[in-house]
Amino acid sequence: MAAGPLSVSSNASTNNDGILIGDKFYSEVYLTIDNSLVPEERLSTTPSMFDGLDLNTEADLRILGCELIQSAGILLRLPQVAMATAQVLFHRFFYSKSFVKHSFEIVAMACINLASKIEEAPRRIRDVINVFHHLKQLRGKNDQLHLPKPG
After folding, report:
1. Which keywords does the record carry (predicted)?
2. What is the CATH number that goes with domain 46-145?
3. Residue 102 has what DSSP assignment?
4. In a structure prediction context, what are the per-residue pLDDT tens digits for the chain, which is 151 residues long?
């Protein structure tokens, strides 16, 4: 028998008051400001720091990623709430994964794609890829403008 998307596994049982999964009983979800924020211990030592990235470089990469998401969201004509959701996803991702091991540009692209769907303003993946490619080309042209001329 195939399990549907809302079915409960064989080791879990349900009743009207909640669900028993393994040996834990879940009856309600409590969402408060205390359990929705990233805990202090995860803010102080990030995976990027363990991989040797200094605090200032990590902060610069976070800012650059959020600016990239904002610019892409504007070009994709996403609502501001979708761009903000993407930025939150971006930050939360890098509190559990390292900037050294994951490309911030790819993660930013994935975050804006996911956020557009979460906030019910979906964009085609091809459009997202094209916008990020366009922004990368613009960034490359700006870098070339600031290089010293040989001679």
Report:
1. Cyclin
2. 1.10.472.10
3. S
4. 444 444 444 454 455 677 787 888 777 766 666 666 777 777 778 889 889 999 899 999 999 999 999 999 999 999 999 999 999 999 999 998 999 999 999 999 999 999 999 999 999 999 999 999 999 999 887 766 555 655 5
